[in-house]
Automatic annotation (TrEMBL), chain A:
Name used for this protein in its record: FMN-binding protein
Signal peptide annotation: 1-19
Renumbered residue ranges of the record's region Disordered: 30-107, 136-156
Stretches with biased composition (Polar residues): 30-44, 71-81
Keyword Signal set for record: yes
InterPro entries: FMN-bd
Keyword Iron-sulfur assigned: no
Listed SMART domains: FMN_bind
Pfam families to which the protein is assigned, alphabetical: FMN_bind (PF04205)
Organism: Micromonospora arida
Segments of skewed composition (Basic and acidic residues): 141-156
Length: 192, 256
């Protein structure tokens, strides 16, 4: 359970990092155009026609926040009562004098793994943070992480290690990001 | 993914094929040229998605599967993909099976192949330093924006924020198949049941379509996939088992 959550939180956090990075001043030009529609998704047609809007739960909401300094957002309220805590990625560039900070919550989407809802923090016309309010947990990967914990006993090959080196890119199994994308997009559409 | 303010090139992300496609162009070309190159890459990926998606009933793959398109009427790309999938079925002892789910689904080859074609086209267009990452399948060429060989992390199967191995190179296709993102979605085509034993398989070569298919096949084999990978010519591999052991080829292009 924790593992699945971590995995998906990772996707969320990396998107957060991406958005933060993209939003920082002076980066690539695509990034700067973000609010005007260029990057994250210049392809409206890739919304699957089958995307079922009936999965939408809470109404989108826009809330004004205290000026500047957005607080790290926490947690979620999945209707069923599952509680999820999302760690915000370290923010490097939040200073935006003169602009007010808004939080915009995207529609929620159900997928086969659970319920996904994303909130963005907008400063001026810049997205400074994207936070997953709700992400799926549970599922089959849980079962296996249990097995794994039981067999962390040092037979066979070396135990898998963690490395946090500087990376250009990461190879991994395909992420199931559709619901995250849909929710993120609906937040962006409301914000701009 | 941290860039300096002065890095050359362009980095763009789009959501296509239900996943994130990241293009990092590291050549110091005029902005208009870079934009055009990126536009072409993403237009191609969207075209592949429209034609090969198994989620779009009007895709060529779905129409072919329903018998609405004959092989002789199929596009050159679809025929190429079908032929290659048939070859891969043989080369993997039947473990790469585009019909494993009972209907045609060449996705295990298509995503890597599409990114490979995009990368080949970039090279032909003179953008020889780039990285294409299609939902975790990575093709790098030349040098990164820092002027060093590209550094490619292999995702830690139990920690999405960490890498478990780091590869480095100037001409690598790196494909990873794992069961941590979508659960046990890879079927052992012989038993029709989910494969088990391996958590994550990474195959490194120079053709991303093949690397992707080999990684999927080895994952489907389960534990015996390790020995199969060790016999695979012209490719190196890294495997993480369900019990969190890692195995890799001696000549895997590892770095610190």
């Amino acid at each position: 359970m924790r593992r699945a959550l971590l995995a998906i939180t990772g996707l969320a956090a990396s998107t957060t990092a991406l958005v933060v990075f993209k939003g920082s001043p002076g980066t690539s030009q695509v990034a700067q155009n973000l609010p005007t529609a260029q990057p994250v998704n210049p392809t409206p047609q890739d919304v699957e026609p089958s995307a079922d809007p009936s999965g939408v739960a809470p109404k989108p909401s826009v809330t004004a926040d205290a000026p500047t300094s957005p607080k790290p957002t926490k947690s979620t309220a999945r209707p069923s009562g599952t509680r999820t805590t999302t760690k915000a990625a370290p923010r490097t560039t939040t200073k935006a004098p003169q602009s007010t900070t808004r939080r915009v919550t995207g529609n929620g989407f159900d997928n086969e793994y659970g319920y996904v809802q994303v909130q963005i923090v907008v400063s001026g016309n810049r997205i400074v943070e994207a936070v997953a309010l709700s992400l799926p947990s549970g599922g089959e990967s849980d079962i296996h992480s249990g097995d794994v914990r039981d067999s962390y006993d040092g037979r066979g090959g070396e135990v898998v290690q963690k490395q946090n080196a500087n990376l250009n890119t990461v190879s991994g199994a395909t992420e199931t990001s559709n619901s995250y994308k849909q929710s993120l997009r609906s937040a962006i559409e409301q914000a701009f | 993914m941290r860039a300096t303010l002065t890095r050359p090139g362009l980095c763009r992300v789009e959501q296509i094929m239900g996943t994130a496609i990241t293009l990092d162009l590291a050549d110091d070309l005029p902005p208009a040229t870079l934009r055009e190159l990126a536009d072409d890459v993403f237009a191609w990926m969207r075209e592949v998605d429209a034609r090969f998606s198994t989620y779009k009933p009007d895709s060529e793959v779905c129409r072919f599967d329903r018998g609405e398109v004959l092989l002789s009427e199929a596009s050159a790309d679809l025929r190429y993909v079908l032929e290659t999938c048939a070859d891969l079925w043989g080369a993997t002892d039947g473990f790469f099976d585009a019909y494993a789910t009972g209907r045609l689904d060449p996705s295990g080859f298509v995503k890597g192949w599409a990114a490979q074609v995009a990368s080949d086209r970039l090279v032909a267009a003179g953008a020889v330093n780039h990285c294409v990452n299609a939902g975790g399948d990575v093709r790098v060429r030349g040098l990164s924006p820092s002027g060093e060989p590209w550094r490619i992390g292999i995702r830690h199967p139990w920690d999405a924020m960490a890498a478990c191995l780091v590869l480095s190179g100037t001409d690598l296709a790196v494909a990873t198949s794992g069961v941590y993102e979508r659960g046990r979605h890879v079927l052992d085509p012989r038993r029709g049941a989910p494969a088990s034993g391996l958590r994550s398989v990474t195959v490194v070569g120079t053709d991303l379509g093949l690397a992707d298919a080999y990684a999927t096949a080895a994952l489907a084999m389960g534990t015996p996939g390790l020995n199969w990978l060790a016999r695979l010519d012209d490719h190196t591999h890294a495997v993480i088992t369900d019990n969190a052991r890692q195995y890799h080829s001696v000549d895997l292009p590892l770095t610190d």
